[in-house]
Specification:
Elements: H1 2-26, H2 29-34, E1 41-48, H3 63-72, E2 76-79, H4 84-92, H5 98-104, H6 107-120, H7 124-134, H8 143-155, H9 159-172, H10 181-190, H11 195-206, E3 213-214, H12 221-237, H13 239-247, H14 249-263, H15 268-274, H16 277-288, H17 290-293, H18 298-325, E4 330-336, H19 340-348, E5 353-356
Parallel strand pairs: 1-4, 1-5, 2-3, 2-4
Helix pairs in contact: 1-16, 3-11, 6-8, 7-8, 8-9, 9-10, 9-11, 12-18, 14-15, 18-19
Length: 372
Amino acid sequence: MRKQHGASLIVLALVSGACFAGKAAADSPIQALKQRMHRPAEVLVLATPHLSGVEGVTATHVDAVVGALAGFAPQAVVVEALPPHTIEAMQQQADLHPEALDAFVGARFHELVAESQRMLGVDPAVARKALASECAKALPSTADANLRCIRLAAAAWDKPWVDYLAWRHGRQWSTTVPKGVLGDRIGRLKTSTNENELLGARLADQLGQPRLFGMDDHPGEDVYGPVFEALIPAIGQSKAYAAFKAEARIIKEAGERTRQAVAGRDLLPLYRWFNSAEYSGLVLDEEWRLFVDRDLPRGAGQARIDLWDARNLAMVSNILRVVSRHPGERVLVIVGASHKPFFDDYLTRSIGVRVRQLDEFAPSTATAGAAP
C-alpha cells in the first residue's frame, strides 16, 4: 500500500505541475497565438529503453509496439541519432568532440563518407542536392538505386538516412550487398536490435517513407568538461546518489518490467509504462531532482541541469526542423526515456505542435475501444 501511495503522490505531483504549467501557458500571449492555429502538426514522443542493451530482444518482441505506432501513421520518423548538420559542425571542432564523434559517428562511417565522396565525385553540398532530387520523394525501387542513395547520403554526412537505407538493403536485396565498408555496415544493421532499426526503420519502411531523420545533439568538452570535473567528485561523496543507485524505483522497476516483457515476448506493456505519467514523475522526482535540492553542491547541480536543458532544447530544435517540413502532419520521435518529460514540455509550448501520447494509440485492456 505504501508503494502504491507513493506512486500516486508522484503522479499527482506531475499532473498538478502540468495543470499549473497549463494555466501559465494559457496566460501566455504566445500560447494565445497557439490557440488560433487551425491545424497544428501532431508529434508523438515515444520514450524507449535502449534496446541494443537488453538481452534477448528480437524483432517479434516489438510487433505490437510497431502496430500501435502504425495507428498513429506518422509522415516522418525522427530517431536519436546525430543529424548531418550537427555532424558537420562537430567535425569543424573535432578537438571538442572526440568522444561523441567516436561513439556516435565512428571511424568506419568516416571511411564510408570519404569513399562515397570519392566514388561519386561529389562534396556534401552537391550530394545534398542530388539526394533531394533523387531520393527524398520515394523509396528506391531497385538495389542499384538504393545503393546510390546510400552513397549520396553518406557523402552528405546523413548518417540516419544511410543507416535506414542500409538496413533496408540488407533485408530486401541481401544478394546484392557490396564488399568493403558499406557491405559491413549493411550486414551489421540487418540484424541490429537498436530501437532506431527495430522501431524507426521498420515503421518508416512499412509506411513507405524514403528516409529517417536524426535529432541528437552533444555539447563539446569546452562546455561539459568543467561541469563534470566539479560534479564527479561530489557524486562520489553523495549519500543521495548512493541511495538512488541502490534503491531507486525507476531503476528497480524498469529492470523487473523489462525482464517480464522480454520473457513474455511482447514489449508493448513495457512501452506503455515508459510512456506513462507515472514514469515521467519518477524521472523528475528520483533522477533529476538529485541535481536540484539533494546533497550535491548547488552550483555543480544547477550546471548539470543547465546542460541537460541545453541538449534537450537543441534536440527539440532539430525535431521542429522536421516538423517544419510536415506542417499539419504527424511526426514520430523515438528517444531515450529520460528525455520524454522534457521534450513533451518544450513541444507543448511550441505554437505549431499538438503533443500526442502512446496510450491514445495503444490503450490498455481497461481502456481498449477508446477512439484515438
